[in-house]
Each structure stands twice: as C-alpha cells, then as structure tokens.
Specification:
The protein contains 17 helices and 14 strands. The protein is α/β, with parallel strands linked by helices and 393 residues long. The chain has two domains: 265 residues, TIM Barrel, CATH 3.20.20; 69 residues, Arc Repressor Mutant, subunit A (Orthogonal Bundle). Helix 5 links the parallel strand 3 and strand 4. Helix 2 packs across helix 12, helix 4 packs parallel to helix 5 and helix 8 packs parallel to helix 10. The mean pLDDT is 95.
Length: 393
Amino acid sequence: MAGARSAVNRAIPLGLYVHLPWCVHKCPYCDFNSHAPRGTPPFATYVDALLADLDADLDECGDALRGRSVETVFFGGGTPSLFAPGQIARLLDGIRVRLALATDAEITLEANPGAVERGNFAALRAADINRLSLGAQSFDDTRLAALGRIHRSADTLAAFAEARAAGFDNINLDLMYALPGQDVDGAQADIEAALALAPEHVSHYQLTLEPGTPFARTPPPALPDADAAWAMQEACQSHLARAGYVQYEISAYARPGRRARHNLIYWTFGDYLGIGAGAHGKLSFPDGRIQRRAKRKNPALYMQHAATPSRLESSGPIAAAELPFEFMLNALRLIDGVPAVCFAARTGLPPDAAAAPLARARADGLLASDPAMLRPTAQGSRYLNDLLLRFMP
C-alpha cells in the first residue's frame, strides 16, 4: 500500500516557494509578511538561512520528496528584486544541489517597478529566472499614490521594456481594480495600458481591506461600492477576452500556453515546499498524511533558527474532515474546474467523501451538473464564498 501511495505522490506536482521578506516601503493595503528595514537588510545571511532551512526540510520530509522533481520555483515577497542577482543566482545554485529541478522548470521572480536597479533584469535572466511578475497595480499615477506605491506608471513602462530587452518572454502584470476614486472607465484604461505592452499573463485583483492593515483601520476615501466593483470586473473581463487572454482562474488571465504553472500547483491541491520567513508549505507523504508547515514570520528570528526545528511556527497534518474544504478552496477558483477524480487522488479520501455538499451545490446552480468535473458555474464563481461554505467541516 505504501508503494502504491508513493507512486501517487510522484504524480502530484511539486513546487518550491521562496519568501524574500523585505521591501522599500510597506503599502497600506498589504497583509503579506513584508518588512521595510531601517538599514540595509542582511541579504547574504538570509540566503544562507534559506539554504539551511531547505536542508532541514529535506531531513524532516525526505519521505514526501523521494523520487520527485520540482516543477516550479517562485520567489515572492516582500520585494525579491531588492536582492542582487548574484545572491539570487547563488540561491538557485544551492537549490539545484539539493533538489532535482525539472528541465523545463518555471522559475518566477516578483519585481516592483520602483525597486529594480538598471541592468538587473539581464543578470536575473542569466541566472535562469525565466518568468517575471511585475507589480504594476495601476497605470494611473493618482491611483498609485492613493495606494501608497513608490513607483509611477513610467517606472512600469521602463521596467517592462528592460525586461523584454533582457530576453524575458514570459511576463505577468499585476493589476488592481476598485481603487480609491476609480470608475469603470479608469479600470478599463488600466487594462488598455497593460495590453499595449502585450504581457503573456495578467493578474487582475480587486482591492480588499485586509484585517490588520492601515487601510482596514482607516479606509481610503472614495472607495467604489460592491456594485461598482462588479461592473469594473465584468468590463475588464470582456476587454481581456477580446484581446485573446483566457480567464482560467478568478483573478488570472493568460495567453495560450502561458498559465502560471506555480499557481496551478496551489489551485489543483498540489504539493509545495516553503522556505523563508513566514513561508508556508504543503506535502503529501507515502503513509497518507497531508502536512502543512509554516515558518517563523520574524526575519531575525527566522535567520537565528533557520537550521533547527525552532524555525517552524507550525507543522502538522490536515485533519481528514478538513480536506474537502481545503481541496475545494483551491480547485473551485479555476474557471474550468478540475476532473472529479482529482479529489480522491490529491486528498486520499474516497471519491464520495464530499458527495452530499457536491449534490447540494449542483442543485443550487453553483456547480456544473457534469459529474466528471468539479467546475463552478458563472453564479458559483461570482458567489465563490457561498459555494465554499458548503464544504466546511
């Protein structure tokens, strides 16, 4: 039985998330584990800590990783582009020594258009970064200022041009909508400006007031209401579709063959290692356990304990009763859904473990009636939270 489960594990895609926690300025809407340092961050020491963390993960989770290759690597933050390309290259070299990377691995790095030194994109491409995600957010300087961003539209245009010149042929642009003072025309103008650059991928998110952020404590003036936000989303969806970008997830649009492979690992309940301050991971073991792990959030404490079990903030198996919700939380974000057989393959539960809530969701018009697919209807995608609540333990 263990051998059969090992074969199943090897069929589950595996990614690596690397968290680089520093940024120049903490934006008032951001609830990520990011920190604006008082001085120069200890970049080299942090890279050493990341590799020590990875070594410890490999020691502790070797059974879950044996015989598997890493299909994607994602450098997120914070602002990963603050790290010198030489440090990113050193880190990638260390990862390759420790893990088997697929020959066609997707290796993504997030970049802030206002925090990239000239010439760094060419050096990052030479270091084998093959996908960039640029945090444009908007092409309206007034909206960018309202968001507390340190860059302006001209910085995004210059960064995109330099990335193309450096040989990047797979670029995502992050855009936000329902911004302070924004209307439908303004949201569509951002889409038009993004499309003029012809990126391979667009991530289009609604601004939300996350608990604990400055915006949640003191909301900015002139925020669009829910109806206005929905009108912006519908208009922008149509605009992107006319330009040939296929919506494959609630907030993700791609040209053919350019879907974000790393994010698809999350959305299809695949496995991923997470290294770095505050990084999360999820791994499937041959004995049937599915374990979540999270690292210490404070960068200084993380670096201090990176080689020891104390680097972990939490670690433990996902209870069987929680697995249907955990699976659906990700899979039902996908517009086309996932094959129904994926549920049992990824969770280890019997196929009928979620039969009752699935039947209710189909009866209420939130899930497509095709029993071979777990696919939200248009109504299910719009009211995704209501759909997901059906699977809460």
